[in-house]
Design brief:
With about 325 residues, this protein is an alpha/beta fold. The protein is about 35% helix and about 15% strand. The strands form three sheets. The chain has a five-stranded parallel β-sheet with strand order 5-4-3-6-7, with helices on one face. Strands 10-9-8-11-12 form a five-stranded mixed β-sheet. Strand 4, helix 3 and strand 5 form a beta-alpha-beta unit. Helix 6 runs antiparallel to helix 7 and helix 12 packs across helix 13. The longest helix is centred in the middle third of the chain and has 21 residues. The protein is elongated, with a radius of gyration of 20 Å.
Length: about 325
């Protein structure tokens, strides 16, 4: 509840649906498994992506059914997207893709970017309705949020609106890069605190840091070259994630685990006060990295990055202090 109350006081930008230029159909779109033709603007969209409903809602498209990822919010829609959802009551799916249940919904478009859809599932789903898997060469979870939005804009007849959203976000990101020259070329990495798993620049969390001007540590880049978006770091080899800014993403019991991680205190990020603890709400905003969550993520993360990157080891990062993360000079008790 504490996180929700914080959001209620935040002025989130309202992304209004509009189509300044009518888009012609049919639209043919290349993807991981071939190509899909969409003959007319869809009216009943089923979203199988774990984050795709955020993208559709930003375009003014309320999915007929969506796939819930995690969290306790109604319809699996987090607070930054609830205004865009309005009074709609989409069907909520969880777990594995259920072909029979989707067929019963009689959709006219099925979207599956960031869904883990297999080629066999695509073959079956495409017999129900035009189906949009990830773009060629991107892998299951390798697309940028900009590319995902552009493709959904094309598929739903809202390509110009998608471009406008991206232009607004790019403008803000450019201003942030200009305002923080010390970030440009500095290393940063997001790490899931639950198992010390790092996200490469083939994942939207890694791409988020690149958009701010950071680069991946060399060890992380080597995994990116292997087309991996995530990999587990050994607790005995934490130097792979020892960056100028180290962002720990929230997980169950993560604070206790980090405070007991033996080699963490030997990291430069620890001794120089460059660790950021991302709470549940910020971690989810970064993990969605959608047009509706990105402004909340920037509003929250940028001040924390400024604290971590100010060059003064005595500056405490407020989120880490609030979470109870032990730091250089802090108590090691419990």
């Amino acid at each position: 509840m504490r996180h929700v109350l914080i959001l209620l006081g935040l002025c989130l930008p309202l992304i209004l649906p509009h189509k300044s230029v009518a888009q012609a159909f049919p639209v043919e779109m290349e993807h991981l498994f071939g190509s899909t033709t969409i003959n007319a603007e869809p009216e009943r969209v089923v979203s199988l992506s774990f984050i795709g409903h955020d993208f559709l809602l930003s375009l003014g498209v309320v999915p007929y059914a969506l796939r819930k990822w995690y969290g306790s919010f109604p319809y699996g829609v987090w607070p930054w997207a609830q205004e865009a959802l309005g009074d709609a009551t989409p069907i909520v799916m969880q777990g594995e893709i259920d072909i029979e249940a989707i067929a019963a919904m009689e959709p006219d478009l099925i979207v599956g970017q960031w869904s883990g859809m297999t080629e066999r599932e695509y073959t079956l789903l495409s017999q129900i309705a035009p189906t949009l898997p990830p773009a060629p060469g991107a892998g299951d979870y390798g697309m940028s949020w900009q590319d995902m939005l552009l493709r959904l804009g094309q598929a739903t007849g809202r390509a110009d609106h998608a471009q406008n959203i991206i232009a607004d976000s790019e403008q803000r990101l450019a201003a942030l890069r200009a305002a923080h020259p010390s970030w440009q070329g500095a290393t940063a990495v997001m790490v899931w605190a639950g198992t010390t798993g790092a996200y490469t620049d083939r994942d939207i969390r890694g791409k988020f840091l690149l958009d701010l001007g950071f680069v991946m540590p060399e060890a992380i880049r080597s995994y990116s070259g292997l087309n991996q978006s995530y990999f587990k770091v050994s607790d005995e080899a934490l130097e792979a994630i020892d960056a100028d800014a180290l962002i720990w993403l929230d997980s169950s019991a993560a604070v206790q685990r980090l405070n007991r991680l033996p080699l963490r205190r030997f990291m430069r990020a620890y001794s120089e006060g460059r660790e950021i603890y991302s709470d549940m709400m910020l971690s989810s905003a970064l993990s969605h990295s959608s047009p509706l969550s990105i402004n909340y993520a920037l509003d929250t993360l940028v001040p924390l990055l400024e604290q971590a990157m100010d060059g003064d080891p005595d500056t405490e990062v407020s989120s880490s202090r609030a979470a109870g993360i032990l730091h250089q000079g802090g108590s090691d008790d419990g």
